[in-house]
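User: Fold this; tokens only.

Assistant: Input:
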Amino acid sequence: MIDSDDFYLRVAYALSGCQLVEQELKLYITQALDYVGKCVGRRLPFKMSGEDYEDASLERLIDVFRKLTDNEALVAELRKFKAERNFLSHKGIAQCLDPWGELGGRSAEFMPRLHAVQAEAERLRWAIHEEGGSFKGDLAFGSFPECGLTFLRAASAAELKR
């Protein structure tokens, strides 16, 4: 039998990892939309922002992320993670309780899933963070004058010198 304090602490760690994945998706979406807004400049009204997704569900965040990345493997991993997170959040804990609300025997077999969700959340959080590396540098240090993007790729700059 598992100590109930240890069990609920493990649940809290796993769920907090899930929340961090959601937060990283929100950050990615916010920064990606900021980048698009700066690239568009004044040429086209662009009123989308990360605030539009502050209260979005994990499923909605994954759908928006999918439209802002070409990393289909990461999107598939996030969808799989969402299914496990939903089980954990909505069904898993209840299945570990006996009819009197005490931890039952299933809690011991549930612990590896808690550990796995926590580890997968950490891995996915870093993968999302790294995915944004392709544009975050430009967002922080790029030149975006009012008419749009002005920095050039190295190949284009070399062509201009000819």
